[in-house]
Design a protein that fits this description.
Chains A, B: Its cofactor is pyridoxal 5'-phosphate. The structure is a homodimer. The first copy, chain A, is an alpha/beta fold. Helix content of chain A is 35%, strand content 13%. A seven-stranded mixed sheet of chain A has the order 4-10-9-8-7-5-6, with helices on both faces. In chain A, strand 5, helix 6 and strand 6 form a beta-alpha-beta unit. Chains A and B meet through helix 3, helix 5, helix 6 and helix 9 of A and helix 3, helix 5, helix 6 and helix 9 of B.
């Protein structure tokens, strides 16, 4: 048997199934709906549906909205509702924030939930630029940062008269660009195309030594592996509710403001739901304590309730086990793909080094768009990302090593039928 | 029989029931869930649940998200879904905008849906201030405008270094303050406390004569009566999805940018979902055509789908009939309340003049908070608004004249038990 054939032998699958049998997170898969006949490798675009969500939505719509109506804004709207689906919509953003905080190494009062990631980036950029010394005019970011991060910075800078420079540099040159011109860094920890993970702690420490504020985008981090914002001394962060947090399409985003900045950072998007006493209906904005001031308008209760229910999946999860399994899954995928990569024009762009890897694996392929289309038709749901990236996301809460094997079998089928056998 | 007794005689109720029998909108009530034993007079805070919404939510969560997963972002994700609940989440904001446009006298491409009203106010303030002549530094608003409108203007002004003045004047002095210092007006058509309706067309025309841009907040207008933004020559507007549009708690808001401004107005909150080609993943923001550029981050699909389903209620509604019924309901309420107002310290603060009335009636009462608490306990759900306002909202889609009678009976019970009989 050649190496290639051995890879797809039953014995390989058996070994992987043995790993799955020892997986301490294996039981979490039962908490998700995963369609028949699909290997879903796009949880880093849209996390799968937690089974608790439809019932919660039905309850919030039918009972809280339909029966209790406006009484649901307050805690005592009804006594007939269990604690697991409490009303008190006023405090729903805070309850969700408290569930996200331990996933990112934050205190609950440092986290606010609501609005989109893009809008939250705008809030934090505005707050951080206002705090930075006036002479520092550079917003430092990666050339390959996710586009909305760049666009929001462009828009804010235009609003401020173009007084800042958005400096985009390659990821491996970031540290060299941490100079006294730089007001802040706006960096995404895990690159959405390559899956490369930056050294959040190291870059944060280097930035602080230069008096530079850090805004971390945790879109592909939160819920994928443990993040320790306070351990790293990070200043600000945002993240996504609908990727590894499984909150549903367009779920509310979260933001983090370190406790030490909460008196000096300003919520320029100051809406009534961030007021210290919204129903006082005062004419002047007085910020609520802590990160709550960054909640702006009326919370999107339906979407927020779905996220709230989805986060309960994490209640009994050991984040160290989550990370270990994620790395085991991506290691397995890279290993199984190696002989295919040797026979086809596949270039691994995800780092081998664990410290530099998120929870996805990506390859360049000259016909990436067509290859992904064929994979999707076979039920292997990954992502094409322009210009030539095949992206495969691994979600340790609901993937097994056997899923990885099935995915590679599907990729092999597409590539071998299209190319040399 | 005294006037007072006659008012509550069965004959009065019979006359009202005859009106209800002739009501061309009476059948719309069947499309809503209205709890037993409640007269719900707070649809101007949170519209009642349209019966189509829970099924839509179940479909979007269970099928579009749970089964189709990321494929639902595109139009051809599945062929098994009927047109009434199409996928194509990418275009969902535009489909919802097209349903709102005819309610406010706008073209579909002038409307964008997403984010909260507060965030949309910020977008429009930023766009309008950027367009205004540099010498004009006054943002003119009402002293009693809804607080979040004031707060968002305060926050934006602080972000811009305090270079503007937020000038708050009484509603009846607005026209006199339309001077060449004024960059824009930020006005809510219907006052959330008094229910007084401003002359949108007249004030817009007066503002335009002075070179002043107008931003209209239609929170208590859209879905309550016909609005004609283009007929009035309005520049910008925002509105609420969860009051008279019945989109659910915290439903996405809408904004309007007149077609003539779309090339010059800038979307400073420029997110990837407002890009002309989001999946090009370009490094520079290129705005999408029309108002779509004001869609910022990933749409909140669950909340947006609820709003989408809720708006179908309006598909067969004649807005002229809607307005006529609204005025008939509020006239009836004021008439039935007149003898109570003569015996108790109730002061009507809603205008008698139809042209100056929205779809609510409010009274001042020195114990307004306690009176409303007792009303709520009896199932008459109105609102207390600080400092002394009893607010009763009327929704012509689901209220009958008999409901008005029942509401006044309840109010009578609370007041007569507490005061002179």
């Amino acid at each position: 048997m050649t190496v290639f054939d051995r890879l797809f032998a039953d014995s390989t699958l058996s070994q992987l199934q043995e790993k799955d049998a020892r997986d301490p997170l294996a039981h979490k898969r039962q908490e998700f709906k995963l369609p028949q006949g699909v290997v879903y490798l796009d949880g880093n675009s849209l996390g799968a549906l937690p089974l608790s969500v439809p019932a919660r939505l039905a309850h919030v719509a039918g009972e809280q909205w339909g029966e209790q109506l406006i009484r649901s804004w307050m805690a005592n709207g009804s006594t007939s509702v269990g604690a697991e689906a409490a009303q008190d919509w006023m405090n729903l953003p805070d309850r969700v924030a408290a569930k996200i905080a331990p996933l990112i190494g934050a205190h609950a009062h440092e986290v606010a939930v609501g609005d989109s990631t893009s809008v939250n980036i705008f809030k934090l950029l505005a707050a951080a630029l206002h705090m930075a010394p006036p002479g520092r005019r550079v917003i430092l970011t990666e050339a390959d940062n996710f586009p909305t991060d760049l666009y929001m910075a462009q828009g804010l800078n235009a609003l401020l008269g173009g007084r800042y420079e958005l400096r985009t540099v390659p990821g491996d040159e970031l540290e060299a660009h941490l100079t006294d011109e730089v007001a802040l860094t706006l960096l995404t920890e895990v690159d959405y195309r390559t899956g490369r993970k930056l050294d959040l702690a190291g870059l944060t420490a280097a930035a602080r030594r230069q008096g530079i504020l850090t805004i971390w985008d945790l879109a592909h981090s939160a819920g994928a592996f443990p993040v320790d914002l306070n351990g790293a001394g990070a200043d600000f962060a945002v993240g996504c509710g609908y990727k590894f947090l499984n909150g549903g399409p367009g779920a509310p985003s979260f933001l983090f403001v370190a406790a030490r900045h909460q008196d000096s950072a300003r919520a320029f998007l100051s809406g009534w739901m961030g007021h210290a006493d919204p129903f006082e209906m005062a004419r002047e904005f007085t910020p609520a304590p802590g990160a709550r001031r960054y909640v702006v308008g009326t919370p999107a209760v339906l979407s927020l309730s779905a996220l709230d229910a989805a986060l309960d999946v994490f209640a009994d999860v050991d984040l160290g086990q989550l990370r270990a399994k994620s790395l085991s899954l991506t290691d397995t995928f890279i290993e199984l793909m190696t002989p295919l990569a040797a026979r086809h024009p596949l270039t691994l762009v995800t780092p081998h080094n664990h410290d530099e890897r998120g929870s996805q694996v990506s390859y360049q392929h000259p016909q990436a768009r067509e290859v992904m289309q064929q994979l999707i038709e076979r039920g292997i749901l990954g992502d094409f990302r322009t210009p030539d990236i095949l992206r495969f996301g691994f979600t340790p809460l609901y993937h097994s090593h056997a899923d990885v094997w099935r995915a590679v079998q599907g990729i092999r089928g597409v590539l071998e039928e299209a190319g040399p056998a």
